[in-house]
Structure formats: structure tokens, C-alpha cells
């Protein structure tokens, strides 16, 4: 296998959550690999910044200001792509509350974005790929939370576990058409979503997470983006229904 297996020249990728963090890093890396990247997010300013990064580096980007919980908005955005080779469903939100204090509205909000938003993206991508007879790749974003029962992460963990089940089920349904579906389950990664504490507390949190890793550090968005590129490209042509865990060794499931 050569580096050409990672070449996405002539292909089109659609990335949700592209305004920052792992979504931005993935969109930029996919563009560097040669793909035309459609960037989607509800953060208009962040979208503009991501597209500018891609274009300034010589890549091609399109932007879609949308909410992934709105199926029709996603449908129209995906339909605007001349063809679709890669869907990276990365958009997500964080919520923390003890089980006994979790409200219906908390669970509904997280499931709407972190599960239904991924489901809608997968459905629209698979339909577009089937209609265009494209042997495409769908990449979903799970989390290291699927391997643990960390206090406070009920809503988040449940939604990400549902994403894993969606990934495996869809992979079994569309594989015969040449469409691959895989998930990335990153460990603790330094992103705007995880940076919600005061500076001192944030530093303590990162130090704790780093100590839990055999590598002695936390993840960066680019670490996860390389996993997305691998699954999006022909380098993973014989991989589907799998969960790739760039987590620094924090979790080593059998």
C-alpha cells in the first residue's frame, strides 16, 4: 500500500460539525488529501473560518449553515453535492449531569444532536451514494465514553453508544453496494467542546487525562482527523462496521 491510497483527489466529502474542533481538523485534512469539502455547521463564523483555512491552503470548500437536527436542511445540503464520496458525521454537543438529576429535556437535546443528527446525515449520505452508484465511505463520531461509565455522562454516553449501533447496522445493510460505514471513538481530546472550565481547572483536567494515557498526553483534533482520513480513504477499503479508537491507550477493549 502506498500513500496514494489516502488520495481523495476528485472526490467530494461532507463534514458536519466543521466549524471547529475535530470537525474543522477533519475538513481541513480531507481537503489537503484532495477532496472538495462541504462544511456544515450552525456556527456561521466558524464555518467561514474553516472554509478560509481550506481555501488559503489551495483546497476547495463549500459551506452549509444548518442545524443537523433538521432533516430537511441536511437533505437539501447533501442534495446540492454533485456527487458524494465521503460523509463525516462529526457534529455533537456535550452535557453533564448525574443520573438522578438528568431531565427529559437534557436527554432529548443530546439525543437530537448526537444521535438523530448523525442518523439523518447517514441516511442522506447513503441515499445519495446509492443513487449515484458511489462506493463511498460514511464515518461517524462516537466517543471513548462508549467504553466507560464516567459519572455525569449518561446522556452523552448513551447517544454515542447509539451511534455505534447505528454504524454497525448500517454497515451490514449497505456493504453489498460497496458503501463502508465506520466509527471513530476518540479519547479525551482538546477541543472547544471540552474546554469549558476556568483555565486552572482546565489545566488540572487535562493533566489528569494525560496521566490516564500510556502515551502521557491528551488528544489533539488532528490526531482524530487522521483516523477520519484513514476511514474515508481507500487505505481502509476492507474495513467496515468497525470502531477505531484513537485514545492514547486509555481504553483497550478486547
From TrEMBL:
CDD domains: SDR_c. Coiled coil: none annotated. It comes from the Bacteria. Pfam families: adh_short_C2 (PF13561). SUPFAM superfamilies: NAD(P)-binding Rossmann-fold domains. The keyword Mitochondrion does not apply. Keywords: Oxidoreductase. Belongs to the short-chain dehydrogenases/reductases (SDR) family. This is SDR family oxidoreductase. It comes from Streptomyces cylindrosporus.
Amino acid at each position: 500500500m502506498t500513500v496514494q491510497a489516502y488520495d481523495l483527489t476528485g472526490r467530494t466529502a461532507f463534514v458536519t460539525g466543521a466549524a471547529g474542533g475535530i470537525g474543522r481538523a477533519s475538513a481541513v485534512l480531507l481537503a489537503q488529501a484532495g477532496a472538495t469539502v462541504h462544511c456544515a455547521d450552525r456556527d456561521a463564523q466558524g464555518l467561514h473560518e474553516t472554509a478560509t483555512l481550506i481555501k488559503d491552503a489551495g483546497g476547495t470548500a463549500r459551506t452549509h449553515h444548518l442545524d443537523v437536527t433538521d432533516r430537511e436542511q441536511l437533505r437539501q445540503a447533501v442534495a446540492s453535492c454533485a456527487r458524494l464520496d465521503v460523509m463525516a458525521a462529526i457534529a455533537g454537543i456535550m452535557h453533564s449531569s448525574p443520573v438522578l438529576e438528568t431531565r427529559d429535556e437534557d436527554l432529548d437535546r443530546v439525543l437530537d444532536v448526537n444521535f438523530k443528527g448523525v442518523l439523518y446525515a447517514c441516511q442522506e449520505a447513503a441515499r445519495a451514494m446509492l443513487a449515484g452508484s458511489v462506493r463511498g465511505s460514511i464515518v461517524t463520531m462516537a466517543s471513548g465514553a462508549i467504553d466507560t461509565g464516567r459519572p455525569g455522562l449518561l446522556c452523552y454516553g448513551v447517544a454515542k453508544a447509539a451511534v455505534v449501533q447505528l454504524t454497525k447496522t448500517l454497515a451490514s445493510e449497505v456493504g453489498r453496494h460497496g458503501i463502508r460505514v465506520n466509527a471513530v471513538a476518540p479519547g479525551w481530546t482538546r477541543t472547544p467542546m471540552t474546554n469549558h472550565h476556568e483555565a486552572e481547572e482546565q489545566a488540572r483536567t487535562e493533566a489528569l487525562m494525560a496521566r490516564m494515557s500510556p502515551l502521557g498526553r491528551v488528544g489533539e483534533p488532528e490526531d482524530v482527523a487522521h483516523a477520519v482520513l484513514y476511514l474515508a480513504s481507500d487505505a481502509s477499503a476492507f474495513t467496515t462496521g468497525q470502531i477505531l479508537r484513537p485514545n492514547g491507550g486509555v481504553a483497550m477493549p478486547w
